[in-house]
Amino acid sequence: MSNAAVSVRQGADRSDGPLHFALIMDGNGRWAAARGLPRAEGHRRGVEALRRVVRAAHELGIRHLTIFSFSAENWSRPASEIGDLFGLLRRFIRNDLATLHRDGVRVRVIGEREGLDGDICSLLNEAEELTRSNTRLNLVVAFNYGSRQEIARAAKRLAREVAEGKRDPDTIDADVLGQYLDAPDIPHPDLLIRTSGEQRLSNFLMWQAAYSELVFVPIHWPDFDKAALEEAIAEYARRERRFGGLVAKTAS
Ligand code: IPE
Ligand code: IPE
Ligand code: MG
């Protein structure tokens, strides 16, 4: 098998279910609006859904879970909503870190740290440091994250190495560039789920999701639960992953 085929298959193709699933947790605001509640309440209920789903991921033996919690483009929202979202992240880490650690969860954070408030950076570092040796589930939090920005950061680091004479440009290929992304050791997502009925990536994991199976579910994120996750996994199991090749013949 060529190197290209090997790297595309990163993100193990297990027949018994996805090893890594990625979540675009969307629809908090619409969930709240439909109930005459403030958007902040939708976000608060979204955190409860997240707790349920992390527990369900444990129970289902999923090894890597990447969640989109704040996008590089979400800065265009009103300051009050950004404040609510950041407040929820602070509270989530303060309240849930000990439980996550006890349950063997390793927290990783991807996205741009520069420009974030110092206390948020300290909390993110603390979560990563405390849980560094845990192996049961990698919880990858995409915070202040945009895929284009991540790829541009990787390109900049490579360009710097070339400019400093530390790298020959001819050595740069997709596998090398992939090693400069924010969490290069995490296998690529097998399954990417977006809630709320929207069918787009919104600048999430565009490199890593090249061969992910995409599942769009109509419910809003605060209503997402283990049953919804199992349904998405069942849909994944019905898909046929080909990675550009031909369908494997079944033995008859
Ligand atoms: C997802 O819900 C949470 C974040 C983007 C942080 P939204 O806030 O996008 O909710 P809708 O899409 O407006 O309903
Ligand atoms: C994507 O949702 C970002 C997160 C879930 C954190 P958005 O609600 O920001 O995406 P768009 O604007 O509808 O594409
Ligand atoms: Mg949205």
Overall description:
The chain has one domain (3-8, 19-236): Decaprenyl diphosphate synthase-like (Undecaprenyl pyrophosphate synthetase). The chain is 42% helix and 14% strand. It contains eight helices and six strands, in the order H-E-H-H-E-H-E-H-E-H-H-E-E-H. The protein has helices spanning 3-8, 28-33, 39-59, 79-102, 118-130, 147-163, 174-178, 226-238, and strands at 20-24, 64-71, 105-110, 137-145, 191-194, 213-216. Strands 3-4-2-1-5-6 form a six-stranded parallel sheet, sandwiched between helices. Helix 3 packs parallel to helix 4 (79-102). It starts with a helix and ends in a 14-residue tail after the last helix. Mean pLDDT is 92; it is low at 1-15. The protein binds 3-methylbut-3-enyl trihydrogen diphosphate (2 copies) and magnesium ion (MG). One 3-methylbut-3-enyl trihydrogen diphosphate binds at residues 25-30, 70, 74, 85, 196, 221.
